[in-house]
Request: fold
Amino acid sequence: MQSTLFHRAAVGLISLMISGMAVASDWTERSDHNLRPGVTAVSQEVYDLHTTILWIVTIIGLLVFGLILISMIRHRRSRHPNPATFHEHVFLEVLWTVIPFIILIAMAVPATRVLIELDDSSDAELTVKVTGHRWKWEYEYLTYADDNNIGVSFMSNIATPPEQINNPVLAGGLFPYGTAQDAVGNEFPEKGANYNLEVDQPLVLPSGQKVRFLVTSADVIHSFWVPDFGGKKDAIPGFVNETWAKVPEGKEGTYYGQCAELCGKNHAFMPIEAKVVSQAEFADWLAQKKEEAAAAPDLTPFADLDEAMELGQQTYAGNCAVCHGNNGEGGVGLPFAGSDFATQEEHLEEHIHVLVEGRGAMPAFAAQLSPRQIASVITYERNAWGNETGDLIQPEDVYEQE
Amino acid sequence: MSTAAAAHDDHHHHAPTGLKRWLFSTNHKDIGTLYLWFSFIMFLVGGLLAMVIRTELLEPGMQFVDPEFFNQMTTVHGLAMVFGAVMPGFVGFANWMIPLMIGAPDMALPRMNNWSFWILPFAFLILLSSVFMSAFGAGHPSAPNFGWTFYAPLSTEYGPASTDLFILSVHMMGISSIMGAINVIVTVFNLRAPGMTLMKMPLFVWTWLITAFLLIAVMPVLAGAVTMMLTDRHFGTSFFSAAGGGDPVLFQHVFWFFGHPEVYIMILPAFGIVSSIIPTFARKQLFGYASMVYATASIALLSFVVWAHHMFTVGMPLAGTLFFMYMTMLISVPTGVKVFNWVATMWRGSMTFELPMKWAIAFVILFTCGGLSGLMLAITPVDFQYHDTYFVVAHFHYVLVTGAVFSMFAAAYYWLPKWSGVMPNKLLGELHFWSSLLSVNLLFFPMHFVGLAGMPRRYADYALQFADYNFWISIGGFWFGLSQLFFLAVCLLCAMKKGEKAAARPWDGAEGLEWEVPSPAPFHTFETPPVVK
Reply:
C-alpha cells in the first residue's frame, strides 16, 4: 500500500490540506490535527492505513455531498418545476451495493495484514510488566536477553506540580469536594511544555530491540497507550494482555502517552513517559537499578518528630492527598483529621498494617514507598490537622511488618 | 373490547382536563406530547451537564470543578441524553404518528402506554437526585461517576453508593422501553387500516417496528447487566470481579451486546423520519422503498454481531478481532444504500427548502460524516489509535446529535402543524436551524482533530497541544446550547396556538393518512378505519 502512486498522492495532498501537520517523531513538534506517524515500523503502517482510509472516506463524502449540492441547485422547484417520477432502478441499486463492497474488501486486506503483525509479540528481547494502579503506572522489568531474574520495578507518578493543575477561579464554586478551594485567588505558575505528560520515573527502554509489554491492572481497567508506539492495550485486573514495540536505532528520545480508559478521579493524571536510549545506555541503567534494588533499605531512625513530619508531609502530598484530601478531610478515601483511626492508640498497628498490605480499595504501599517514607507518613497522619497524638513511628516498626 | 368501549365513552363525555388529563391519559396524542416534552426537558438537562464539561475544558488546568465531579457530569450527561432525550423522543413521535399513519384509532394498549411514560419521570428523578446530592448535599456524596458505559469493576467494587440509585433507574427505564416497544409491535400488527399492507406502511412505521424488536431483544440484556452489578455489589457474587473468579471483560461483552443494537435503536427511527420528509419536499416518491425496508432489516440483524468493535483493545483473540472487524465494515453497505436512496429521491425532484427539509438535508450530510468516521473506526489496527479518544466522541456525536437529534428537529417542524394547528414560527425556526448548524460543527468537527492528535476522552484536563481546539469546541458548545432556546420558543408558541393557522395538509407534497385528518388533529381520530387503496 505504501508505495503506490495513489498513496503518495494522498499523503501529499493531505499534508497540503492540513498545514502544519507534524510528521516529525519528536514530541516537541507534536501534531495537533492528525494522527502521529509514530516511531515504530508498525505505527508507521497504522498511520499509512489511516491516511488511506481517510482519503477514501473523503472522496466518498465529497461525491455524495457534491451530488446533493448539484441536486439542491438544479432540482429546486424554481428551476425544475415538474418532478421526475422514477422511484427505482435495479442496475443503480445493485451498483451501489456492489461497489462499496469491493472498496471494503480492498480495505480489509491491508487492515488484516497489519493486525496480524501487531498481534505477534513473540521473540522479544526485553519483557516489561506494566501494571495500572489508580492513578500511576508500575513497571516491572522481567527478562532482558539472558537475564530472567532482574528484580527491578518502580512506580511512575505524574510529575506536574499540583499548583500548575489546580487553578480554581471561583470561591465556593462548583468544586464540590473542596480539594482546590484553598487555592482560589493564588497566582498560578505557568504550565510547562510537558504539562500533564511528565512523570517522576520514566519507563526506560532500549532502541533497536523488541520490547514486549505484559499489561495488567491492580484495581480497575486502565489502558496503556503511547501513540508513537502505534496503539493501546487495556490493563484489566485478572488478565495479562500483550503488546509490543520496537523503536529503531537512531530514534532515541522521550515518547509520551496517557491512560486511555476511564479509571476514576485522576484518569487524566496518570501519564506515561517512555525514555528510549541506546542499548549500551540501557544496560548501564539496568545495572544501576539492580544494584539499588539489592541494597538494604535505609532504616535510619528519625531524630525527632519534626524530621519525620517534614518527610511525612512530602510523602502524604505525593501519594495520599489525592484520595484522603489535602487536609486529611477524606474523599475517595477515609478521613484522618480527628478520626478514631488516626488518633486512637489501638489502631496504630492496624494503621501500619494497612499501609504495608493495603485493604480493599486502599493499595499496598510496601512496594512503592520505603519503610522510612511509610513511617513518616503515618507519623504525619497521626500528628497533623490537630490530631497531635505525639506518636513517632520509626522505619524499623514498618520494616518488621514487611 | 374494554378499550374500544372507553374510547367510545370519552367521545360522549367532555374531554378530561387539567392534571388528570395528563396523569391518567390513555390517549396516544396526549401521551406522545408528554413524551416529547419530557424528551426536550431531558435534552436541556443533559445539555446543562455538558456545559459544565465544556466550561472545565475551556482551558487547560482545573478551574471550575473537581475531576471527580467532572466524571459525574460526563456520566449523567450520557445517560440523560441516551435514555432521557433520544429514546423517549422517538417513542413520543411513535405515539403521535404511528396510529395516524396506519389509520388506527389509538395505540393498541393505551393503559400500558400511560404506564410506560409515567415510569420515566420517576426513573430520572432517582438518577438526577444523585447529582443534586453530589452538588449540594452534606459531604457531597458522589453521583454515578463511571461513564455511561459503567464498566466493571469501576462501577462495582469501586462504584459510589449512588450506583444503586443508578441501577434502579436503569431498570425502570428498561421496563418503560420494553412496554413502549410491545405497544408499537401490537399496534402495527393489529390496528392497520384495511388495505394498509406491510409493504404499504410509511417507512417511519417500518423503522419503528424493527426498532421495537431490537428493544425487546436487548433491553433485558441491559437489565441483566445491571442486576449482575447489583448482586456483585451487595450479595457476594463475582460475575465481574477477577478476585472472585469472575471476568471484568464479560461485563463489556454483555453491555455492548445491548449497547450496539442500542445505537441502531437511536438511529433507525431517524431514518424513517427522513424518508418521510425528503419525498414530501422533493415532490417525488421515495426512491427504493423496498430496498429501504430490507436495508433497515439487515442493519438491525447485523447490529447483533458487531458489538465487540467497541472493545477491540481488551485483548481478544486474533480470529475474534477479525470477525468483528469484517462484520462492522459490512454494516456500511446497507447504511450506504439508505444514503444513496435519499440522494436519488432528491435527484430530479422539485425541491423546496422549508424548515423540515433543511433539517433533513443537514441530517443526510452530517449523519454521513458520522457514518464515514465510523468506517474509519472499523479498521481495527487504526482503531487501536482512535479508541477512547475524542475521535470517537466526534464520531458518535455526529451520529447522535446531527443524526438522531437533527432528525427529531426535522420531525418536530414537519408535524408541529398537525399537532398544534399552527405553523411553527418561521423566523425563530430559521434562527434555530442556522445557529444550530454552524455551532454544532464548531462544537464537534474539531473533536476529530484533537482525537487524532491523541486526546483521550473523559479527560478533565489535558496536555497543552490540545488547548486551542478545546477552546473553540467549548465556544461551539455554549453557542449550540443557547441555540436550542429558539426551539423552546417555537414549541411554546405552538403550544399556545400562536401563529399562522395550519391547513390539514400544510405541505403541498405531503402524502399519507396523517394529512387526511384536520389540523390540529382531533382528540380522537380514525374511529372508523379509513380504507387504503
Strands of chain A lie at 126-133, 136-144, 152-156, 203-206, 211-217, 222-226, 231-235, 241-245, 253-257, 272-277. The longest strand of chain A covers residues 136-144.
